[in-house]
Amino acid sequence: MRKGKTFAATILAMALLLSGCGASGQATESDVKTETETESQVAEGDEKTEKETVNVTEGMIPQVIEKDVTYVMKGGNWEVKSSEITNWTWAEDFNIQDTVWIIDTEDAASIYSKVGYSFKRKPASMYIHFGDDLRDGNSSIGTSEDGTQKMDMSLSISCDIIFECEGNKFYFEDVKVNGGECFMDGTTNIFGDAGDGEEGVISVPADVRKGELEDFNNALPTAEEAMISESSTYIKSTIFEDIETFNSSSSNLKDGVWDVKITNTLRGENLSPELTWDEVDGASEYVVIMIDGAWLHMDAFTTKTSLEEGEIGGGGRGNRYVGPYPPSGTHTYSIFIFALKNEMGKVVLAFDGGGNSIDNIYKGLDVDIDGNSGNVIAYSRLDGNYTREK
To answer: Does residue 287 contact residue 365 with C-beta atoms inside 8 Å?
Structure first.
């Protein structure tokens, strides 16, 4: 009897143990059956809505897009029925301040709305350096005219821009950025005013490169490149570039800009600029020419190596001067000083008129009165811009 009680107790203990294991969460046969029955309850046409997040890492601004996506059961598979963007912003750890971006393109006209048609389909690069004065950094969900959804940015920050195309560099300093828009493909449009009061659009492609401040500084235009970019009449090349040169200077020329005093404007005094230059061995005469592209503003013949301010003008050929008076925009007024070996021959100088060519003037000076060539020993050049007052 004692043995039988022991066996019965063992059976009871085993039963209790099995019952405890089932309560601990291990799946029983009945549990599996219930789950199978629940899954089989999803029918054709049933729907479910889930929240999804898309991270766009391409382009200038990393974007975080949150969506409510509704799925419908079709043929045993869940298919997207609709998708609604509920939030669209840039990544929390993104900071545009003091960053540099580099755009390379085969179509210069495609990256800046204010670039003229003449730049279309020409390779170009753009360097953008954002400042550290970010304000109003907010975003919202928007829609383009063609129905494309986008992220609108309320953005206020300054930036400097270098635009380079076919050897020409244009430097836009302190551009005021007043907004932008981003798209799912990583492209971005930046809206800014370069100082003329008119908004331009910089189109930043998804393959934009992030650079360093050193990259931007290395791309900055030289003084000559800056002058060329601002002027519509800069003389880029001459046929006499290979002959010897000498130094010259003018107290009326500062940082590549002519003193308003020398101009023939309401603000100017129409005084010929002060000039000083090195003496050239073997020179018997110097010819000083001021020219604005093809417009002759001064011709002066002298044996000296300097001219005082206001010294030239009021006389005939060889003593004529009229100061800069550009019809519009910025012009470059270049002074060429030629050191001549002998008396010049026939030289055409159409004073205060167009149709002149510095190359043709050089050709005339290079032949002396006896018809001998090689009369120009050396030359010097000074360039300065002047912008018409608005």
So the answer is: yes
